[in-house]
Every structure is written in structure tokens, then in C-alpha cells.
Specification:
Blueprint (H helix, E strand, L loop, with lengths): L9 E6 L10 E6 L2 H10 L6 E5 L1 E2 L8 E2 L2 E12 L5 E17 L6 E6 L18 H15 L5 H6 L2 H11 L4 H9 L3 H25 L1
Parallel strand pairs: 1-3
Antiparallel strand pairs: 1-8, 2-7, 3-6, 4-5, 6-7, 7-8
């Protein structure tokens, strides 16, 4: 749908801790703050309808949160409005980007000058993970979901394509914001899967340690 030349170099950004969007993923969002309502309205007037999801970095004493250098742009593909004026939207992940500079302007929301160079893979077909041991992975995932008291449709997970499975879990699992950033910045699907496994194993190990201490 897009190539790098089609993508705008200035986009609105939505700094939201722990909210991860990945290429070809879908992120539902509930919009209620006035500045982000304005962002959605302005976004719908553009041809690309892109919004950049990015993790903020809190800086003690700073007037506003700084931003990580890498985020992911999503196209607004679903929109509905509630009776009290809130928006329910869905962003479909297009490509990661690197922030070059924050743009000063008159909008109530933040905008950035960005570059999509180096993320051409994001605009291509779904990635594969040749070394993916699905059976072993799902066994580990089952332990994690039990420990976190999470529910899922295991039949759907078993049948999902590699990228859909790994990226959906990266987006949905309740990891810390910095861990989500590590998943976002993983250069390949294989690296993201390895990072995801490490985070799950760490969560299980930490949970076991806490149980022994109680």
C-alpha cells in the first residue's frame, strides 16, 4: 500500500507508555483527551491518515516527557464516535520510523520530523521465522498465561502465522514500557521472538522468586 517515498516526513505522534504498535499489527485506541481528539480529526483530513505511536521517556524535572528515538506509524483504518464525544479508533501498523526532530507548532498535540529509512522491510510482505519451534514456544506461553491469569484462544494461536503470533503477543503481553521498546526495535522477527521468550522466561522466574519470598 505504501512505499517509503509515499510516507510523509512530518507526522503527529501519540506518546503512550506501554502501547506497542508493530508493522501489520492492529492497535485499538480509546481517545478522550481534547488534544488527541484534535489529533484524530486532523489526521482524518490527510491522505496518509498516519499517527506515530511512540514510547515517552520521563525525565525528572522536564516540562514534558522526552520521546524514544524509534516509534511505529499506523494508518487510521477504523473510527467510531460515542455519544459523549469520545473516539474509538484502530491503527494498522505501516512502518517503524526514527525521530529526527520534534516540530514546534500551533497544534495541541506533538508532531515530529521522522525518517523511515532503514525500515523498508516493514513495508514488504509478512516476515517468517525459520528457527521458530512453535510447540516449545506455546508450552512456555501456556505457563506464562497461567502465571499471569491470562486467557486466550489456543486454537487460534496454534494456527496463526509466525509474524501474526509473535507480533500480537509482543503487543498484548503486559510487559514494562522499556521491554515493549526492545520488542519494537528488534531488527528481525527472529530477534523479536528471542526477545519475547527472554521476557516471558524472566517474568516466570521473577514470579517464582516472589512466591518463595511470601
Amino acid at each position: 500500500m505504501f512505499n517509503v517515498a509515499d510516507l510523509p516526513t512530518t507526522i503527529p505522534v501519540f506518546p503512550l507508555p506501554g502501547a506497542l504498535l508493530l508493522p501489520r499489527g492492529r492497535l485499538p485506541l480509546h481517545i478522550f483527551e481534547p488534544r488527541y481528539l484534535a489529533m484524530v480529526e486532523d489526521c482524518m483530513k490527510t491522505e496518509s491518515r498516519l499517527i506515530g505511536m511512540i514510547q515517552p521517556r520521563e525525565v525528572p524535572g522536564g516540562a514534558s516527557a522526552r520521546l524514544h528515538s524509534i516509534g511505529c506509524a499506523g494508518r487510521l483504518t477504523a473510527f467510531s464516535e460515542t455519544e459523549d464525544g469520545r473516539y474509538m479508533i484502530t491503527l494498522s501498523g505501516v512502518s517503524r520510523f526514527r525521530v529526527r526532530a520534534e516540530v514546534n507548532g500551533f497544534t495541541p498535540y506533538r508532531k515530529c520530523d521522522v525518517s523511515f529509512d532503514g525500515f523498508e522491510r516493514d513495508l514488504g510482505p509478512a516476515e517468517r521465522d525459520p528457527g521458530f519451534d512453535r510447540k516449545q514456544f506455546l508450552t512456555l506461553l501456556n505457563r506464562y498465561f497461567d502465571a499471569e491469569e491470562l486467557k486466550t484462544d489456543w486454537d487460534s494461536l496454534s494456527d496463526a502465522e509466525d509474524e501474526l503470533l509473535i507480533n500480537a503477543l509482543s503487543m498484548l503481553c503486559p510487559f514494562q514500557a522499556e521491554d515493549k521498546q526492545a520488542l519494537l526495535e528488534a531488527p528481525t522477527l527472529t530477534t523479536r521472538r528471542e526477545t519475547l521468550v527472554t521476557l516471558i522466561e524472566f517474568a516466570l522466574h521473577t514470579g517464582s522468586d516472589e512466591s518463595r519470598m511470601q
